[in-house]
Design brief:
transmembrane; membrane; transmembrane helix; 4 helices; 111 residues; DUF3325 domain-containing protein; mainly alpha; globular
Length: 111
């Protein structure tokens, strides 16, 4: 169950980050260039897909009774973390999902 919860949080953060990077302003803040229109669209679609998968992970962990409630909590936590990181460490905010993927895999192996 812990792996599913961490995966849901990881997907929520990745989805929020992708939606954030789908905006020209935030993409330029992190990468110092404007995104191509196709990349912007892909980031937005990928962000919504990741948020949907995060909902699936929450429902798998808690069931339909509490899953959506936990999902909103994870969205809030992921969004708050992104809001805190983006102004001060934008590159860290962008690379955090990739850096945390091995940790998630390790947690999955241990449980």
């Amino acid at each position: 169950m812990a792996t599913v919860l961490f995966a849901g949080l990881w997907l929520a953060y990745g989805g929020m980050l992708a939606l954030c990077m789908g905006m020209e302003r935030h993409f330029k803040q992190v990468w110092q260039r404007l995104p191509a229109p196709l990349l912007r669209r892909g980031l937005r679609v990928g962000g919504w897909l990741a948020l949907g998968l995060s909902l699936v992970a929450s429902v798998a962990a808690w069931g339909w009774a509490m899953g959506p409630v936990g999902w909103f909590g994870m969205l809030s936590l992921a969004g708050f973390g992104l809001v805190l990181l983006l102004p001060y460490q934008p590159r860290l905010a962008a690379w955090l999902p990739l850096a945390s993927a091995p940790l998630l895999a390790l947690i999955g192996l241990l449980t």
